[in-house]
């Protein structure tokens, strides 16, 4: 498989494939960008599209409006259509399959008529502390602050009137999917960020649903939780087809025809696992963007619930330990933007790829412990390190060696700082064994640098494939292609996602693997000790600075 542009020799064949509606579309709504990837049966990327957007802080809550969601997916799809037209000289009018992915968790609540009851509350909102703690104790499993059920109980405990009128609760991917297909369903990976999944991996845990129903004030509600949550599907199950209304929503020009089969909508964690083929035990993946998360497929259950670890699933329903951080590359991007502006003032502007390559290369030359320079990338609060309200912070130790190389090394370490803290808990306290971690996201576009930093930070080999920059939209497109594969007249419904990926998609995948460097691992351990020691300073900054 290759993800490069299609060669001229294959353009005619590709144009026919597109015109005949044999391509598969994955669309992912991330925190700052909506991306689309169009692929063939082998996973080759035929076209891409994107649309930038930003969340808004409204009444102390991070949100996106429904209008922004609609405008965003339309803008992204329009960009994809232009790319198809420019690359292949055809109009995109039909699809074989499609799938929607989005940032996980959060709270999208609707009444029986489909009216939104309260603005979308995204995963970034951390005001659900008391509700999450009550649920964790009552259910006997860790319920993170950002999970949908934590937002629901928070609204109930806060006396919010809309809870009485609740008829449908979903995530962002589930909302868009329902708009496109009319079906209220959710892939098990995304559903596992709404409410705990049963051991069988194919639905919500019935015992825990009963415990939720027994909580004070819940029994008096005019609905039961299982009735307002989306139906759970595993990878490959039929999640409906693109309706006439859905096609018009996605493509207001009217060119797109209905009828494409759809994959179950998934969260960005699940699509990251698929995009890196990290769905087998002793493997995992790191997805790095505005936030970061590590997903580790487990061989055996953990010793018990842990606040630092979320228990979710792969898109096939297998148990996964998830280390999630609210912050990753946002502050790093801001610093590089500053350097980019400086280059402009010097009269030597740099393209983003060149700028990142240059400065990442400098970071690779920094001292293994970053010379005593510490970077906290906390644009928002960070639960992994018990920081309620984040403030980006650069701190130097008394005897620090403040060079550009050490500064950039500290920025790269800081991007994965909270993630390293969480993974240390999983590896050391739970003795979880890892053979390899696969990584993807824009931070890995500069060959080798962030990859080596992550390998040293996790003391684990880190592999990056030629799909590393494609991210979750490509992973979602693969899930759509898998769904189409098993539902063809000649398909085998018993085919597993693992087999499909191994035999059809990743057979020729080019992987670059970086192993932990002894000096780098030791240096990062020293840096992380300083990072932990300085956390009270970061917490104080959040208290004192508006």
From TrEMBL:
<dbReference type="GO" id="GO:0042732">
    <property type="term" value="P:D-xylose metabolic process"/>
</dbReference>
<feature type="domain" description="Carbohydrate kinase FGGY C-terminal">
    <location>
        <begin position="285"/>
        <end position="483"/>
    </location>
</feature>
<comment type="similarity">
    <text>Belongs to the FGGY kinase family.</text>
</comment>
<dbReference type="Pfam" id="PF02782">
    <property type="entry name" value="FGGY_C"/>
</dbReference>
<dbReference type="Pfam" id="PF00370">
    <property type="entry name" value="FGGY_N"/>
</dbReference>
<keyword id="KW-0119">Carbohydrate metabolism</keyword>
<dbReference type="GO" id="GO:0016301">
    <property type="term" value="F:kinase activity"/>
</dbReference>
<protein>
    <submittedName>
        <fullName>ATPase</fullName>
    </submittedName>
</protein>
<feature type="domain" description="Carbohydrate kinase FGGY N-terminal">
    <location>
        <begin position="25"/>
        <end position="249"/>
    </location>
</feature>
<dbReference type="InterPro" id="IPR050406">
    <property type="entry name" value="FGGY_Carb_Kinase"/>
</dbReference>
<dbReference type="InterPro" id="IPR018484">
    <property type="entry name" value="FGGY_N"/>
</dbReference>
<dbReference type="InterPro" id="IPR018485">
    <property type="entry name" value="FGGY_C"/>
</dbReference>
<keyword id="KW-0859">Xylose metabolism</keyword>
<keyword id="KW-0808">Transferase</keyword>
<keyword id="KW-0418">Kinase</keyword>
<dbReference type="InterPro" id="IPR043129">
    <property type="entry name" value="ATPase_NBD"/>
</dbReference>
């Amino acid at each position: 498989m290759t993800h490069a542009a299609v060669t001229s020799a294959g353009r005619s064949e590709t144009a026919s494939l597109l015109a005949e509606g044999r391509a598969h579309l994955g669309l992912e709504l991330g925190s700052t960008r909506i991306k689309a990837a169009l692929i063939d049966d082998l996973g080759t990327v035929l076209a891409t599209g994107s649309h930038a957007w930003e969340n808004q802080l409204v009444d102390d809550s991070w949100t996106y409006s429904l209008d922004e969601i609609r405008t965003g997916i339309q803008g992204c799809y329009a960009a994809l259509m232009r790319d198809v037209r420019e690359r292949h000289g055809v109009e995109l009018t039909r699809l074989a399959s499609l799938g929607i992915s989005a940032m996980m968790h959060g709270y999208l609540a609707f009444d029986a008529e489909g009216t939104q009851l309260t603005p979308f509350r995204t995963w970034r909102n951390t005001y659900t502390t008391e509700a999450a703690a009550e649920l964790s104790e009552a259910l006997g499993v860790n319920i993170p602050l950002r999970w949908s059920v934590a937002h629901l109980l928070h609204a109930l405990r806060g006396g919010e009137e809309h809870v009485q009128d609740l008829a449908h609760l979903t995530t962002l991917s589930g909302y868009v999917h329902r708009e496109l297909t009319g079906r209220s369903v959710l892939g098990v990976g995304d559903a596992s960020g709404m409410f705990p999944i049963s051991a069988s991996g194919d639905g919500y845990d019935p015992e825990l649903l009963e415990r939720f129903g027994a909580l004070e004030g819940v029994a008096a509600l005019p609905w039961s939780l299982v009735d307002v949550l989306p139906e759970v599907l595993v990878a490959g199950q039929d999640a409906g087809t693109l309706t006439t209304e859905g096609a018009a929503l996605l493509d207001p020009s009217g060119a797109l025809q209905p009828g494409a089969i759809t994959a179950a909508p998934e969260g960005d964690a699940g699509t990251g696992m698929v995009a890196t083929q990290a769905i087998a035990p002793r493997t995992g993946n790191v997805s790095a963007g505005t936030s970061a998360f590590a997903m580790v497929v487990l061989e055996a259950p953990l010793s018990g619930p842990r606040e630092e670890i979320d228990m979710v699933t792969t898109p096939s329903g297998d148990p996964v330990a998830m280390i999630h951080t609210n912050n990753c590359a946002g502050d790093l991007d801001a610093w590089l933007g500053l350097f980019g502006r400086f280059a402009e003032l010097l009269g030597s502007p740099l393209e983003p790829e060149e700028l990142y390559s240059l400065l990442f290369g400098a970071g690779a030359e920094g001292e293994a412990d970053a010379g005593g320079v510490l970077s906290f990338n906390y644009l928002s609060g960070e639960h992994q390190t018990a920081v309620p309200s984040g403030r980006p912070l650069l701190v130097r130790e008394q005897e620090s060696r403040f060079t550009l190389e050490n500064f950039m090394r500290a920025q790269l370490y800081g991007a994965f700082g909270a993630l390293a803290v969480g993974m240390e808990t999983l590896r050391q306290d739970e003795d979880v064994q890892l053979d390899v971690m696969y990584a993807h996201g824009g931070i890995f576009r500069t060959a080798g640098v962030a990859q080596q930093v992550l390998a040293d930070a996790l003391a684990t080999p880190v592999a990056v494939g030629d799909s590393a920059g494609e991210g979750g939209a490509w992973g979602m497109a693969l899930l759509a292609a898998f769904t189409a594969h098993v539902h063809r007249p000649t398909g085998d419904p018993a085919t597993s996602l693992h087999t499909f990926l191994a035999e059809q998609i990743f057979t020729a995948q080019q992987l670059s693997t970086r192993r932990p460097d002894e000096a780098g691992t030791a240096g990062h351990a020293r840096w992380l000790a300083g990072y932990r020691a300085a956390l009270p300073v970061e917490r104080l900054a959040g208290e004192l600075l508006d």
